[in-house]
Each structure stands twice: as C-alpha cells, then as structure tokens.
Amino acid sequence: MEHASFIIGSYVLTFGSIGLYVAWFLRRSRSIDKFLDDKDKPWT
Amino acid sequence: MDLTPRTSGDASATAQTMKPRRRWLPMVIVAVAIVAGGVVVTRFLTSAIDYYCNVDEIGVRSGCDEGRRIRVQGVVVEGSLAKSDGATTFKLSFHDKTVAVRYEGDPGGVFQECIPVVAHGRLQGGLFASDRIEVKHSNEYVEKNDTRIEESDKEAAACSVQEG
Amino acid sequence: MPGTSTPTGTRATRMLGVVTLAFTVWLVVFGLVVSAEDVVQGSTVRMMYVHVPSIWVAYVAFALTAVVSAVYLSGKNRSLAWDRVAGASAEIGVLFVAISLITGSLWGRLTWGTYWVWDARLTSTAFLFITYIGYLAVRGLGGSFRQRARRSAVLALLAVLEIPLVHFSVVIWRSLHQESTVANSGTDVELDGLMLFTLFLGIVTFTMLFAWMVLHRQRALALQDAVDSHGLDLAIKQRQQEAEVR
Q1: Is C196 within the bounds of a domain?
Q2: Does a structural domain hold residue C82?
Q3: In this structure, is residue A4 part of a structural domain?
Q4: Is residue C29 part of a domain?
Q5: What is the pLDDT of residues C132-170, one digit of tens each?
Q6: Size of interface A-C (CB pairs under 8 A)
Q7: Which of A7, A21, A44 is opposite residue C43, by nearest beta carbon?
Q8: Domain total of chain A
Q9: Interchain pair B110, C111: CB under 8 A
Q10: Residue A14 within any structural domain of the chain
Q11: For A17, how many CA atoms within 13 A lie in the half-sphere containing its CB?
Q12: Cβ of B6 and C235 within 8 Å?
C-alpha cells in the first residue's frame, strides 16, 4: 500500500482519539460514582 | 444567614465532593474562539482575492484579467506534460480553451495528465506562471482491477474517467 | 446496576457496545484491506472511510444538540436531561469535526498536494469547529443548571445554521473540495460497488459509535451535575447550622 503511514495513521488517530476520550470520561465517572447513591442514576 | 461565597479553606465539608470550578478558563476559551473565528473568516476573504477562474474565462470574466493574480481551474491536457530543469510545463484546458502553464518545481499529490487541477499564479505574455498547484480530485471513484494493468492503460482509463 | 464496572453502563449500552466494536473491526478490515484501490487515487481512497463518516457524525451530533435544545426551550419538558444530551452530543461532535479536519488534511496532502487551503468547504468546517468549541466553553461559564441550559440552548439553535452553509459551500463557492458523492441528489452514483458498501458501512458504524458515546457521556454529565448539586446542598446545610448557632 502506498502512503501507508498516512492512511494507517489516520485510522489510528481516528479510533485512538475516540478511545482516549471515552476512557477519560468513563474514568472520571467511576471516580465520582462513590459520592453518589442509586437515586442519582435513574437509568440503573 | 451568611450567603457570601467562601474561600476553599473553610468549606472542608464540600471540598471532598466539589472542586472549585475555574470559571476563567471557559471565558478565555470563548474569547479565543471569537478571535479565531474572525481570523478564519479574514483568511478566507483575503484568500478569495485570488479569483477562481476556469481557463475559458481568462480575459473574459471580470476579475480574471491577464496580469492579475488568479486561480485557474482546468484539465491537464494529455501529452502536454513535460519536466525540465526542475520546472514543470503543461497545458491546461477547459471548454476547448487552452493555456500553457509553467510551474517551478514538481507538483505534489496525484498530479498527472487528464486530471483537473487548480493553478495559482499570473498570466504573462500567454504563459501562466504558477507558484502553486493543487489537484482537484473529482468525486468519481473507480475500483482499480489491481493486477495486469499496464501503465498506459491506466493513463487512458484515468483520461476516460475524467472526460467521460 | 449492581456489579456494573462502569456507572454509566446498562445492559442496552453494553450490547450496543459489543455490536459497535464488531462493526468497527469489520470497517477497519474492509477499509484497509478488502476494498479496492481507486484508479486515480490509489490506496489513498481508504482515507474516505474514516473522513466522510466523521463529518457525518459531527452533523448528526450538532443537529441532535439543536433538536434537544429546542425541546428544552419549547417549555413542554424542562428536564435538565435534555440539556445534558445537548452538551454530550456537542462535545462528541467537536471530537468528530477535529478527526474529520485532520484526516481530511492528510488526505488533501496526498491527493491535492497541500495540507490546507483557505477555500469554502475547509474554511466553513474550521469555523464550525471553532463555533462549537465556543459553545462548550459557554456551557462551562458557570451559573445555575437552568441558566446553563437556557444560555447554551439558544446558542445551539444559532450554531446549527452553519451546517447547511458547510454542506452546500462547495456548491455556492468554487472549491477544491469535491462535491458530495453520496448525499447528492440528481446525479448517478459515482462509487463502485465495494467502495460504496465500505463507505456505507463506515457511516453505519460511526453512527452506532456516536449513539453509544452519547448515552454514556450524558449519564456521565448527570453524575457530574449530581455531585455539583450535592456539594451545594452540603454547603447550604453547613451555612444554616452556622446561622442557627449565632
């Protein structure tokens, strides 16, 4: 594949940045979860 | 009842659950966003001063005059591409009108014959002196039948794709 | 749900997550390996399968932000949940515009020969990106939840008007950027079979990814809001006790 670094790089960047963003806010939710009861989480 | 805001020191009960929010950060971001928006619009407007012209509009459409800095759009004529002394020369055509282009250097991208390009520069004495070339890729995508395609067949296929 | 490792997850989001992950793997395999190369562009056409779905998701995200903001402002249902969906959706939209700008820039370098050009499509997309960064900043300016909701809802309804401008910019102004390939009525399809399928797969996958992310993110924002309001409750209680003592 020509220009493999650009092409694979853009796939890595796309899914990598999505993964980092999701990991960031899920970690944050987990850390504040201990201050909350189930009534703060109506979806459960 | 005392309702004045507290400094973080005596709000020990709340410190556990609530960090003091830095309100200045969003304000700075809003300010930067407004400035950046202005810069972007300005860049677009000043950049649009390079008039966008098709080859057949040079000298015809207002703003596309000879000697003025313009952007010319056309298709690279088959068989006209030549490279010598680090410069690239080719003919650009659109709607049966043709202009000769000279570009100092080697255009990047997928530059080749039979594809539409945009050349930035100035028409002087019948020769369009360009300092920037961009390949305008069409929105046609054709699968390459990978193996056994000869180079000449590929060129011809590209030409028929663009003109067909 | 007890035993859930992520506080924002439910059975539904976990199922959606698994399916989305499978689709993502499928897309990567099809995008990078199975789909054919383009006659002119060669393998760089593979950039399309992440670039186009990204901007698609950004449009969907900003449209969703506007719709839920309108619901909130209409007054029929003043639940702050609408506001949190608006915020979550805009945040994810900003991420996807950024992805689209960067992958587009890399793709432009390979096909046009330049990373960036100040033309209509690129400029208007950059402007859209900056607008929604501003929107997110305005959400963080402080005040009560209601103030935040009203303020940002008005802004969301104004900002969404940029989307038609971005989308039709290639028609309005002469541009280096190609016109829409798929969302283009009146012309015949110019994508060969497997390419069209892969692009379609990309759009489906990214839309599911977006749905999964919005569900989690708006719940994460609900947790954040709950913590903030409990903090306030505690502070008020503390002040009342002090007032009684005096």
Answers
A1: yes
A2: yes
A3: no
A4: yes
A5: 999 999 999 888 899 999 999 999 999 999 999 888 887
A6: 100
A7: A7
A8: 1
A9: yes
A10: yes
A11: 18
A12: yes
pLDDT in tens, B149-163: 344 344 444 555 444
Identify whether the C-beta of residue C159 lies closer than 8 Å to the C-beta of residue C67: no
Domain that holds residue C215: 12-35+46-176+192-245
pTM score, two decimals? 0.79
The reply to whether A5 falls in a domain is no
Dist. CA B3–CA C149, nearest whole Å:
24
Q: Residue B89: is it exposed, middle or buried by C-beta count within 10 angstroms (0-12/13-18/19+)?
A: middle
Tell me the one-letter amino acid at B54.
N
Statement: residue C79 has pLDDT above 70: yes
- For C126-140, write each residue's pLDDT tens digit: 999 999 999 999 999
Residue type, B105: G
Note whether C84 contacts A: Cβ–Cβ < 8 A: no
A2 domain residue, yes or no: no
Q: How far apart are CA A7 and CA A4, in angstroms?
A: 5
Strand ranges, E, within chain C: none
Rounded to 5°, angle at Cα B23 from B17 and B28: 145
pLDDT, tens digit, 9 for 90 and up, residues C80-128: 999 999 999 999 999 999 999 999 999 988 888 778 888 788 889 999 9
| Domain span including residue A20 | 10-34
| Percent of chain C scoring above 70 in pLDDT | 86
What is the C-alpha separation between A22 and C92, in angstroms, rounded? 10
CB contact under 8 A, C134 and B29: yes
Question: Chains touching chain A at 3 or more Cβ pairs under 8 angstroms?
Answer: C
CA dist., res. A30 & res. C215, Å (int) = 15
